Amino acid sequence: MASAVTQMEPVDVAIVGAGAAGSVLAAKLAAAGKSVVLLEAGPKRAPSDLISSQLWARRLRWGGPPVRSEGSGPVSFGLNGGWGDGGAALHHYATWPRLKVADFKVHTLYGRGLDWPLEYDTLRPFYDEIQQEVGIAGDAAAEIWRPPGAPYPMPALRRTAQADAIARGFKALDKHVAPTPLAINSVVYNGRAACLYDGWCDSGCPIGALANPVVTYLSRALEKGARVINNALTQRVVVSRAGQVDAIEYRDGRGELRMQRARHVILAASAIGNPTILLNSSSSLYPHGIGNRHSLLGRYLMTHGQVLISGFFAAETEPHLGVSGAILMSHDDYEKTTSPGAFGSRQWLLAPALKPGDFARFAPGALHGSALEEFVRRGVRHGAAMVCMAEEMPSLENRVELESTSQAGGMRRTRLVHALSADSSALLRVAGVQGESLFKAAGAKEITSMLLPSAHLMGGTVMGSSPSDSVTDSYGRVHEFSNLWVAGAGLFPTTGAVNPTFTLQALALRTARHLLGTWSSFLLQ
């Protein structure tokens, strides 16, 4: 016998997910006087809840229903996902470069991948506005590869001894470095404290120097009257007639089924969560899920491959200081045909803060006992590292799909299928060789390179110019629906080689402006 569904008070906008994208939309829509409810699967979070600990950081990752990952290059939702207010951006590194002009037109320029249904110049003013509201520290003039845009509102974070040591190798090989644009305060900004350089960004930032949603757009949304319902696990989108969404069905913290009716529904759960919800929303009207008329829902799942270079320097590098992301970066090899035998962009991120546990993780596998202890002891004083992040081209075979059997409550669990392409593998091999040369030129010893777990999850609900090639339009509106929207990195048709949070917030701001500007035209029946 089906359980009763509790009907909640209708609102103008219901948003699934209180993370980076959902919080921007909630803040802008609530500020315009719309009634907004955010349904967040995880718990309530506040800066005072955050603890600087690698063990604590695990609590900020996905804590909902298990997600199975398969294929020759499996990706980890547990590592990349979020759980609770702020979503994955609560533990993100705040590394915020912009996508380049060519990233938006890969198919047009190179005959590979997909084109975005908008160009860089379209998104540029939204990049500029987000960086001013959130605060980015950097040096635009030093980024010789940066596309046009307003200068950063804060000076760059100070360089660390580790960054200086690695940068010598880039200079020796005639490569450029620049301060990484970071959504981390180098000075007091908008009432938020400046960074302490203690290197615990990935476990949250209790002082609010790092621009996670809890201290930026989510707090602004709450001030304007938006509400967050925590421990609300969305089951499906409810549709009773073609082309129009009625409500969101979710289970609350006690497992009771509830229905939130809304004039507009926005899915901002994640690149994995959004297609999972839409696929689980199958009905007689939409037997293969909502937004899946052309079997593209869940397709083009993408990630960033990573290779880490590490070594030891004679002088002390103080690697525990800095930020989790990177103090310096290099985009000299970002152009997509730069790497021999491979296609795609890549970036170097120099000098992430490193803790003892990090050195233990990338120590040679044969070390144990006293030899491992000695390796870690040297690392925390003389160690250094940098990471190459490589682009992945979209593939139909890399996908989000559902398991064949249902779990308790009727929802089918998520399965990810992913294989790393030959180009991506080649990019990482080229980076490994180049990275070792750069460290050698810098004077490092005992240099090693190793593959890291993939970073970031994108695609699955890609935007495009027509229903035949995409799930949504350029604003994230699901094709053939008047009031159903998707937000987040799942919209990306291609990944570039830069971290996605800045871009997905710029897209969310653009969607919010469009929705408000056309609000009166959405006269629902």
What is the fold's blueprint, element by element?
Layout (H helix, E strand, L loop, with lengths): L5 E2 L3 E6 L3 H12 L4 E4 L14 H4 L9 E4 L6 H4 L25 H5 L9 H15 L26 H12 L5 E2 L37 H7 L3 E3 L3 E6 L8 E5 L5 E11 L5 H7 L22 E11 L15 E3 L15 E5 L5 H6 L7 H14 E8 L8 E8 L5 E6 L4 H21 L2 E14 L25 E3 L14 H17 L8
Helix pairs in contact: 1-7, 1-12, 5-12, 6-11
Summed over residues and divided by their number, the pLDDT gives a mean of 95
> How large, in whole angstroms, is the Cα Rg?
22 Å
**CATH architecture label:** 3-Layer(bba) Sandwich
Give the structural class: alpha/beta
CATH homologous superfamily - what is it?
A: FAD/NAD(P)-binding domain
Counting H and I runs of at least 4 residues, what is the number of helices? Answer: 12
Beta-strand content: 15-25%
CATH topology title:
FAD/NAD(P)-binding domain
The percent range for helix content is: 10-25%
